[in-house]
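Ticket #4471: structure output looks truncated?

Reporter: J.K.
Steps to reproduce: submitted the chain below (279 residues) through the standard prediction queue, then opened the result file.
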Amino acid sequence: MKPYFSWKTLCLLLCLALLAGCSDDDEQPDPQLPPLVWPDDVATAIPDEGFRAHCLRFFDEDKDGRLSKDEVLAVTVISYLYRWPQIHTLEGIAYFSNLERLNLGGCTVSALDLRYNSRLEVIYLENLESLTVLRGPVGYALLRIEFLDICNLKELDLSGCGNLRKLHLGVKGTLGTTLTSVVLPDASHLQYLNIAAANQASYDTLLAGASNLVRLYCHFYPGEVLDLSACAKLDELVVQTTSGSTLRKLRLRKDMPLNGDIYICDENGVCSLEIEYVE
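Returned output as attached by the reporter:
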């Protein structure tokens, strides 16, 4: 007797076969992003001379002066720290969809768009004085972002980052920052946050939903009350302010598992704030 398959079973088998034939490397990070169109030579999609030369030097495995799709998809780390020639744009980095770590420093990049790099786990940035806009990857990879001196950063779009664990936005001294726009719809995965921003909304965006935050280093909060009542797991807290700051109160949960003292300081040393404990 011939085996009998219903039309539903046949459709299911066909779908499974199609899914099995799909490569993870060709997945779109988000259906709302325009699909990438792959050129025969990816190097032609990298307009910046410095970035293109770097990619050809380190990723052109067969040394034919071209970058094939296979060569680009084999790249998991890009590290460009204080190299020459100077990089002015990282346009074309979207094709490196298997990138797991990006180290970038000493460049004149003004905007960095990493939305297509959905497998990124570490973004390390330093001495990028020209950078004003940073768009994070769209994906669910466990992600750490370390920006040692955000300097002139104005816009931080992390709307596609579904599993951001560490966000370090450092500043030098008490010079402050120009950061006025932070987008992170889900901050519940954050465990470490070092933040300095120019407006209260940027802080509140991150802190209001940071229910799993363990370590917080907060610089120059511009409001009167720093409300950390949503941070139920906070274990370490450092608040840096200035002598002319309007900040007067911290609001903490009674059951917050702080390990040791709360450290509050301004440019003159250790100072004090009123602390309100809530249920």
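Triage note (M.O.): checked the attachment and the full token line is present. Residues 10-24 have pLDDT under 50 and may be disordered.
Status: closed, working as intended.
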